[in-house]
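dumping this here before i forget
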Amino acid sequence: MGADTPNPKDLAILVKVARYCCTYLCMDSLITFKGPS
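structure:
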């Protein structure tokens, strides 16, 4: 049922996950670049 049209809730969750992943990767690369403090 409604497999072709994406669910707004699913879309919002996808965006949240994507943002979280991006932020995590950015922080991870920054920490790696600066090295262990």
